[in-house]
Input
Amino acid sequence: MDNWYTHEEIKFKLLMRRHMEDHIIWLRSYMVSLLADLPDLSYVEERFVRNHDSFMNSMREFYGDPLVDNLIIVGKDLMRLIIDLLKATKVGDTTNASVIETDLITSVENISNLLSIANPCYSRDELIDLYKTSLILVKYEFIARMSGDYNADIVYFDMLMHHAVTMADYITGGIIKRFFREEMMAQYQIQLEQQSLDQEQTREQIQESQEQIQEQQEQHLDQQEQYIDYQGQTQRHLQE
Output
């Protein structure tokens, strides 16, 4: 079952991939604008942060408003910390960058805790590893571009994009297992139970029919015996 997807599952899987890919694209746009001091920096920053909201809102129908609202708040903190880390790295503020990286790990753990508690199909440690890998690649990509190593910059961007799809598929997979597949299995179980009831009713009907046939056969035998007795009595009367 894990190797195939329904139409609805594929639609959801592609939606989550698109949101995560947009996240990486807008993050790269922010890196370019920040390093080049472009006038669109604040606009790109706003769009980058807003994309995370879209990603979390896609899970609202499954996890409900309270959890998703909380995820959006924690997620915005994570996006702001990424922005602060890039700014500190640009100006060479290693002390502040170190503090921000510690805060980033805390934020990642908070998000992973929320998701793994809400969905037992997730592993908290696996989620943390996925987020940490993403943060490492973001840092390497930014440093490569800042230092003018554009070949490495592109390599890390490609790696980050591939990793983003991996993250999206992991999060999507948990939702599919927890909600789509459990509902499907529940419906299948109902069908099996209904089939069992139908089979039981069919067996009862067959048994009832067999009993009726046996009863009719017994009645027929009784009639035959009565007829034989009648013939015998008639024969005796004629002989008398």
Summary: The chain has one domain: 7-187.
